[in-house]
Amino acid sequence: SDNRNICLWDTLVSPTNSLVHAFTCHDSGATVLAYAPKHQLLISGGRKGFTCIIDLRQKQQQQLLQSHDSPVKAIAVDPTEEYFVTGSAEGNIKVWSLSTFSLLHTFINEHARQSLFRNIGTGVMQIETGPANHIFSCGADGTVKMRIIPDRFSPLNDMLKNDVKFMI
Question: pTM here?
């Protein structure tokens, strides 16, 4: 309410004093959140395709990215906190640098817009990251996929960008 769509609460104090800070990042509300503990960053995705990065130490918005053309449905931070991954309702997956907030890789149409099940949604439903630059995603199309992010300095980078390594 009051046009605040991301709120930090302190659950150890009385309810009247529990709101620590409120942020307005997304016009139509936030759809997903992820936390990068080493950097003390909160990353949120919104219904209009924006990704917001909030610095919790300074309690201020650090960056707002137009990351997708449809709602951001999933966000994951890699274990080393070098990058984060966003997935959208249109089925695209994007990999972003956590230090510069620049786009590193795009996997286009990873998951189909149509849903295998009724009323479950569309596109990317969940993303997880693993060691050695592995990305696991599942979609409303009923598939689970694993990707390995190519080395950004490798000449094979563009050739490997759309090479699916595993699909169930």
Answer: 0.83
pLDDT tens-digit profile of 50-104?
999 999 999 999 999 999 999 999 999 999 999 999 999 999 999 999 999 999 9
The domain locations on the chain are 6-167
The radius of gyration of the chain from alpha carbons, rounded to an integer in Å, stands at 17
Does domain 6-167 match CATH 3.40.50.300? no
The sign of the CA dihedral 157, 38, 128, 48 is negative
* Cα–Cα dist 25/5, whole Å: 7
